[in-house]
Specification:
Elements (H helix, E strand, L loop, with lengths): L2 H12 L3 H25 L4 E5 H5 L9 E7 L5 H17 L3 E6 L3 E7 L2 E9 L13 H12 L4 H13 L14 H11 L2 H6 L1 H7 L1 E2 L4 H4 L1 H13 L5 E2 L15 H16 L15 H8 L2 E6 L7 H22 L3 E7 L2 E6 L7 E8 L3 H9 L3 E4 L2 E7 L4 H11 L9 H5 L2 E4 L7 H8 L14
Parallel strand pairs: 2-5, 6-7
Antiparallel strand pairs: 1-2, 3-4, 4-5, 8-10, 8-14, 9-10, 11-13, 12-13
Helix pairs in contact: 1-6, 6-7, 13-18, 14-16
Length: about 450
């Protein structure tokens, strides 16, 4: 199948119909009107502003999350914005079917209306990057810039978004670190089409810096400061925000997610297929994968605290890293780890260690040598050096229990307590985690080539 045929077939699935757009726009207008009524009743000087992919008409068919920002005057203090903004958003939320409070840089309200998810986000009513006070303020400027520059390339953006979703490289959340929708829009506007973006995968990585709005000429000092900072932090690419020279739009993009884009782009251009956009799910047996690898899977299962993903998952990532670090210090070789809302997976090379640990010490005639001698119970000399022997826990479950009980591991502050109370499983997971275990062990998240048919 030619690339043109593939694109045409994909567009039929992802392009919203005129009727779908009509419904979405109608519901957006209803929400704006409802918000205006509440704002008027409250006597506030606030403007409801639709932002995001629906406002830009770059949303995919069936993807109907609505972002409605509540833009407050610039003279309001940040504390007042948080307090008044949340109060207003909650009052609007009460008139929807239901709502809950979420937390980003500051609290916002996530409501549900006629089957649609609606985020009500307080922000400042900014007209220029110099007025930006919080991270969310730029969203209004982003929407305006895209609408002014997209020039009919809406479907090209849809293709890139669906491609990125299909290859598991979409989503700028800190626990995903992929391409944001806004980044996809910028790349299409900059390079002209979906295919041209794919063709530029290698070019982007080599050039490193993409400056769609020409900030390096207009604001060279600020823009270069952004570039230097991001390059020093070893980011895959630097895309200077067209509305703010101080920001890299690709700041959250990880090397792994860019790597997926890098390889899958080349593969698609060579052998185009709908599978890149709509991959067939191939889940094998985690037990067979363990047998093939000859390794062991340790699973911590716990009851997670009631936190939104943006807070919960980064804390679990930090905790998983902290525990694996302690296991390595105890002598286990950790081959990888993964985590989810209620579990941490750790792959290790063995489940048991020798009952004794031999430790090489300092020169026996040094000050440190005497301290080493006094500190340890079983000590001997080999040449000039001291050696000691100590008994230790030999099974990984015992070692993990000791690590967890002591609390001597880095962890997210809201999850440490529940993780300390984890159930520990070895080479077995409950049915609900079979798929997650296979995806982890087979490295399906970031796999780019596999000789086996289930790759």
């Amino acid at each position: 199948m030619s690339v043109t045929e593939v694109i045409e077939r994909v567009l039929v699935k992802i392009r919203p119909s005129e009727e779908e757009k009509k419904v979405v726009n109608s519901i957006t207008r209803d929400l704006i009107e409802l918000s205006r009524e509440v704002i008027e009743e409250s006597g506030l000087d606030v403007t409801p502003v639709p932002v995001g992919s629906i406002a830009k008409d770059t949303f995919l068919s069936g993807d109907h999350d609505i972002d409605l920002f509540l833009a407050f005057p610039l003279d309001l203090s940040l504390n007042e914005l948080k307090e008044e903004g949340l109060k207003l958003a909650k009052e609007i939320g009460r008139r929807l079917e239901r709502y809950e409070i979420g937390y980003a840089e500051h609290p916002y309200v996530r409501g549900y209306y006629k089957g649609y998810q609606v985020d009500l986000v307080p922000c400042y009513n900014v007209k220029d990057w110099r007025e930006v006070k919080t991270a969310v303020d730029r969203s209004i400027l982003h929407t305006k810039w895209v609408l002014e520059n997209i020039d009919g390339k809406n479907d090209e953006v849809r293709l890139l978004k669906r491609f990125l979703k299909g290859i598991n490289a979409y989503g700028s959340e800190i626990y995903i670190r992929g391409f944001s929708g806004y980044l996809a829009e910028i790349l299409v506007i900059k390079f002209g089409s979906f295919l041209k973006v794919l063709e530029k995968a290698d070019f982007m990585l080599k050039q490193k810096v993409i400056d769609p709005a020409g900030w390096l000429k207009k604001e060279p000092e600020l823009a270069m400061k952004t570039v230097k900072r991001e390059i020093e932090e070893d980011k895959p690419i630097v895309v200077i925000d067209p509305v703010d020279p101080r920001r890299n739009v690709a700041a959250n993009l990880s090397w792994e997610r860019y790597g997926l884009f890098y390889f899958r782009s080349a593969q698609f251009l060579k052998s185009p297929s709908e599978d890149f956009f709509f991959p067939k799910k191939r889940i094998g047996s985690y037990r067979e994968e363990l047998k093939r690898r000859g390794t062991h899977l340790v699973t911590l299962i716990f009851q997670p605290p009631n936190l939104v993903d943006d807070i919960l998952l980064p804390q679990l990532e930090r905790t998983a890293k902290g525990i694996t670090r302690q296991l390595e210090l105890e002598g286990f070789k950790v081959l990888g780890y993964d985590y989810g809302k209620n579990f941490i997976f750790i792959e290790v090379d063995r489940t048991e260690l020798p009952r004794v640990e031999i430790k090489r010490g300092p020169l026996y005639f040094s000050t440190h040598g005497m301290r080493f001698y006094e500190k340890n119970e079983r000590v001997w000399i080999e040449g000039k050096d001291l050696y000691s022997e100590r008994e230790r826990e030999d099974h990984i479950v015992d070692v993990l229990e000791k690590i967890l009980q002591s609390g001597g591991f880095s962890a997210g502050k809201n999850v440490k307590k529940v993780v300390k109370e984890s159930d520990i499983l070895v080479d077995f997971v409950p049915r609900s985690l079979h798929e997650d275990a296979y995806i982890f062990l087979a490295r399906q998240k970031f796999i780019i080539k596999c000789y086996k048919s289930n790759g």
